[in-house]
Amino acid sequence: MATTEETQKPDAATATDEETATLEVFRYVPEEDDEPYFETFEIETFEGMTVLDALIKIRDEQDPSLTIRHSCRMARCGSDAVYINGTQRLACNTQVREVGDPVKVEPLPRFDVIRDLVVEMNEFYDRMESVEPWFQPDHEPETGEEYLQSPENRRNIDTVLDCIWCGACTSSCSPAATDSDFPGPAALAKAYRFYKDEREGEETRKRRLEMLESSHGIYRCHTQFNCTEVCPKGISPTEAIMEMSRDAVKEKLRFWR
């Protein structure tokens, strides 16, 4: 018969599941701190724990002043994009045990810090708005008229439809960092989504392309594919930009024939 001590002793499998992780978290309050700094936290982890889970655990159990931005926790809202161990990622979609130890968490590079891991997104939203990311048909629909899209055309833009405006790609983009008039990869991928939509009509497509091929537009892309590498939804803004650039060149060649 087992003793009370033997009965209460955890088995080996349970014991090995109890692991710890070290998080080095960027801290900065512009109104209070002279310089940013990193604060180290030790936490117990569990199988499937995300970096967002870990940050919330730190905030709830160790330091309630830690400021983070999050919402859906399902990689759909894009609000918790941060810089984890040198790469732009969604905190809710990154496993603590898969990124190594320590886990270094910083705000998105090239964005102004509001507090700790929260950055100012207004400029990013302005860039998105600059490409007119809304449906613009050539004519107003008549009563009962539908704008029909072919399955083939829908498949062509399926991937870019998944953009969640997280800002990870723009944070990784060198031209976006040096040229405030460059819309950036997220905005240009969104422009591509409407440019390639057959329901907008030929005149609208031409106007969009003319708008995007300015000196601060599609030709500013360096085709480094940084944005493609960090996109959490598997979108390739670089390929979308390259396709629009090719179309713009073809339009010019057609004009001179």
Major sheet: arrangement of strands: 2-1-5-3-4
Mean pLDDT: 89
Percent range of helical residues:
25-40%
SSE pattern, N- to C-terminal? HHEEHEEEEEHHHHHHHH
DSSP summary, beta strand count: 7
How many whole angstroms does the radius of gyration measure?
Answer: 23 Å
- Which CATH class of the largest domain applies here? Mainly Alpha
CATH topology of the largest domain: Fumarate Reductase Iron-sulfur Protein, Chain B, domain 2
Describe the structure.
- It is a single chain.
- The chain is α+β, with helices and mostly antiparallel strands and 257 residues long.
- It has two domains: 18-119, Ubiquitin-like (UB roll), CATH 3.10.20; 122-256, Alpha-helical ferredoxin (Fumarate Reductase Iron-sulfur Protein, Chain B, domain 2).
- The protein is 37% helix and 14% strand.
- Strands 2-1-5-3-4 form a five-stranded mixed beta sheet. Strands 6-7 form a two-stranded antiparallel sheet.
- A hairpin with a 2-residue loop joins strand 3 (81-84) and strand 4 (87-90).
- Helix 4 runs parallel beside helix 8 (185-195), helix 8 packs antiparallel against helix 9 (202-212) and helix 8 (185-195) packs across helix 11 (237-256).
- The longest helix is centred in the last third of the chain and has 20 residues, at 237-256.
- It is elongated.
- It starts with a helix and ends with a helix.
- The relative contact order is 0.11.
- The model is unreliable at 1-16 (pLDDT under 50).
